[in-house]
Write a structure and sequence with these properties.
The complex is a heterodimer of chains A (459) and B (346). With 459 residues, chain A is mainly α. Chain A contains 19 helices and 2 strands. In chain A, helix 5 packs antiparallel against helix 7, helix 7 packs across helix 10 and helix 11 packs antiparallel against helix 14. The chains are: A mainly alpha (459), B mainly alpha (346). Chain B: Keywords: Electron transport, Membrane, Mitochondrion, Mitochondrion inner membrane, NAD, Respiratory chain, Translocase, Transmembrane, Transmembrane helix, Transport, Ubiquinone.
Amino acid sequence: MLKIIIPTIMLMPLTWLSKKNMIWINTTTYSLLISLISLSLLNQPNNNSLNFSLMFFSDPLSAPLLVLTTWLLPLMLMASQHHLSKEPLIRKKLYITMLAMLQTFLIMTFTATELISFFFLFEATLVPTLIIITRWGNQTERLNAGLYFLFYTLVGSLPLLVALISIQNLTGSLNFLLIQYWNQALPDSWSNIFLWLACMMAFMVKMPMYGLHLWLPKAHVEAPIAGSMVLAAILLKLGGYGMLRITMMLNPQTNFMAYPFLMLSLWGMIMTSSICLRQTDLKSLIAYSSVSHMALVIVAVLIQTPWSYMGATALMIAHGLTSSMLFCLANSNYERTHSRTMILARGLQTLLPLMAAWWLLASLTNLALPPSINLIGELFVVMSSFSWSNITIILMGANITITALYSLYMLITTQRGKYTHHINSIKPSFTRENALMALHMTPLLLLSLNPKIILGFTY
Amino acid sequence: MNPLILTIILMTVFLGTMIVMASSHWLMIWIGFEMNLLAIIPILMKKYNPRAMEASTKYFLTQATASMLLMMAIIINLMHSGQWTITKVFNPTASIIMTLALAMKLGLTPFHFWVPEVTQGISLTSGLILLTWQKLAPMSILYQISPSINLNILLTMAVLSILVGGWGGLNQTQLRKIMAYSSIAHMGWMTAILVYNPTLTMLNMLIYIMMTLTMFMLFIHSSSTTTLSLSHTWNKAPLITTLILITLLSMGGLPPLSGFMPKWMIIQELTKNSSIILPTLMAIMALLNLYFYTRLTYSTSLTMFPSTNNMKMKWQFETKQITLLPPLIIASSLLLPLTPMLSILD
């Protein structure tokens, strides 16, 4: 695992020592190389995990997330080039350093064996993200957004620290490789109920679950493009990954403790999808759509069946790529019109037809069109929740319909119809932007040929 | 001040604390405290204005009261045990009175009222000495009598201090008062773990002193005592803003910075001793502290705070050279991977 971590750490000296005209080239190239190295992890030979050392391991759940993380860094760097072009050199280097630091922490989080080390790095990802959002965001609301982001996550995760230490006290070790063999049922008591709550709330806030999701629209909207991309694609998945790992230890309380959260998530996905239909702000629409998709993942994780775990993992990877791509598309709009209002730049298909093709593909994958992996994820979740309780099919069906409605609404508003006359002087699409969209879309389409690698450890 | 006089006074302060920390006779400890107190009064009064006089008077009165309480506790201990050696305290009454006296010296709630007012009235350098060096002596006595301290009183004071330190600092814009409330909260953390594992108290004290030293040196470098004047640092020395950001986030206890280490260790020790609600509560209350540190970073480093045009020319004046700042910055932000080394503190 050090073959991935050390090069990522060394990206930081690379940026500081590069010449002015080489910083973007150097960092993008080397981060692409690092992502190529991480692809070798997808080869999980047997039913168990690949253990690299006492501290790092990768299993069929964390490998696709790891590949997604390393894949996203060059994409983030490519997307940030335009809005940073006018900044002084030192600030560009600081931005790239923040991204590289965040990347290091994320890689270490996904491969950590000790749960305390996982927690520690989970919290550590907050600091670079906070700096990226509040320092390089564009509107005054970014300060508030940073505060909400930081404090929601911290209030949720400090009880997790206490819970992890008390579990270590009980079992002697928090090493994940050991715990899966030790696993025994938690005795039924009030304090174990609080233990369950303490363990889960951190990830519920991070996912985010419907009642605790207030930080997400703020943070996603106010962040610069790289911040939005990494938030939507990876940081939300940290919550899902943590939940998948920790629910292993929390049986049998999950049988009854999960009900309120299941209800909140089932209801929340309908509510947030419906709110998407009423949004005027493009990034806010994509942010609420993230909440809605993540609510599906929460439902899947709490049901705890093999199919639902497969669906959750597939949905996380698929949503990561799709959501990040949608944010890049929204950013390409923002860079031209400097406004996030959707109706301000309509009818773009006439002016930028290739970008319209990317918009079409992104919207289609967002609404889970077959045979994309989004569909595989959603389908598995819907099927497993139907087997858990037949009535949920109504809510799930309604959610899929409303998702299709707002995705098409977003597509039609921005792309179709007569263009607004004030945008006929926008710059045509850069090759960089087209490359960015292609690099998002290609893994998504290729994975539909072999979804086995993203189906997680219950395949 | 005349350099010779300053040297003598600083040596007396130093000697007083050393006598407290190194003595085994209760009377010598009391003498050390008094020496320390008397010698620090001129340091607090470096700037001769009524505000500093008021601050010094308040400090003298509270510390003298605390010393008298300490003397009473020593006498009661003498009465019940017949000897002056500092081992454990032999009588619960003496122990309680001694704990209260030392809490008054440290600035724990409910004896915290003097800390913000005294810190505000004095210059930055004196405030630095007040909030770091002066905490060493009482804490060393608490460390030595830790087996016989009444747990209920100490934990109540600790939790209340964390609460007061968090809530009190929320409405402040003066940097010295912010550091004072931060000191109250950190003292609360330190005393919470005193009965369970005094080594962690020392660890927390060490990290706290390093971080506070760094913060004060950064403030002295930019000669700023209010949030507003700190927000001009991006004009003068942009690197200082980054350092302020890192140190403030470290004080707030965010991983991966070293300020997280004492909090993590303390939560671990408390949880292993089967108190679960207490560390959760303490950790959540520490977020109040983090809020006003983050607010400070917002005005200083994460935004280019609006300033009048003549403020933007501040870089033309010569900057001070601060020795010892780089190692302090490293120590206050990057020490977390060295956590296993805290076994050397035993």
